[in-house]
Amino acid sequence: MQQTIPFKVFWPWLTEHPDCILRAGSADSVVYDDDDYHWCFTEEDACTLLVQVIRGKRLVAELFIELAHIAFVRMTSGERGRSISTWFRKFRDNRR
Questions:
Q1: Whole-structure pTM value
Q2: pLDDT of residue 96
Q3: What sign has the CA pseudo-torsion 11, 19, 65, 88?
């Protein structure tokens, strides 16, 4: 199964299903879920979303998502019937 959906459709679903996250990150770093972690979702401002990973009262990680950079989300089937979501960035063409 492979399905492409707009990020604006995916984000509300994700905020209601924080226990479905196994890992999140970028090319620079990755945060893996743990039984002790709690995932919080909020909006920093109209253009930026914020994902926080918290253990107890301690902040473990923060991910800032700039909406202008997300093109779409692709959902694919993973191990044991799990769905995997991959976010695809928009790239600007800097050639002149």
A1: 0.74
A2: 44
A3: negative
